[in-house]
Amino acid sequence: MRFNPGGNFFFVVDGKNVIIYNAYTLQRLHHIKATPEGVSDIVFGERDSCFAIITPDGFLGRYRLPNFTVIKEREANALSSTSGDTAGSQQYRSCDFIITA
Fold first, then answer.
1. What would the mean pLDDT of 41-46 be, rounded to a whole number?
2. Is residue 8 a part of any domain in this protein?
């Protein structure tokens, strides 16, 4: 079990699955199926904007918080723009992870 740095979610690894709960209400919010090898670690992005699930075979699944959508490669590598007219265009924010030993 692991809490996100902000403390409002907790993540439970159940074999090959990750189940995410609201830490205040204990409501089950989301379920993620990992690879058959299971889960070796969960890391969180800066300001609780995202998290990643790492498996023993090297898979890295990245997800946004609080909506649990998958972060695609082009999103993760895109630079965010804070100036100019953004009407009608889609912006992507990168997700930097906090790795602790």
1. 89
2. yes
Distance, in Å, from the CA atom of 64 to the CA atom of 53, rounded to the nearest integer, reads: 12
Half-sphere exposure of 15 (CA within 13 A, CB side): 3
Query: Is the link from the previous residue into 36 a cis peptide, with omega within 30 of 0?
Result: no
CB 66 within 8 A of CB 51: no
H-type helices in 1-101, by residue range? 73-77
User: How far is it, in rounded angstroms, from Cα 17 to Cα 33?
Assistant: 5
pLDDT in tens, 46-92: 888 899 998 888 888 899 999 999 987 554 444 333 334 444 434 34
Q: How many domains would you assign to the chain?
A: 1
Q: Confirm whether 58 is domain-assigned.
A: yes
Q: Is residue 36 a part of any domain in this protein?
A: yes
CATH number at residue 37: 2.40.10
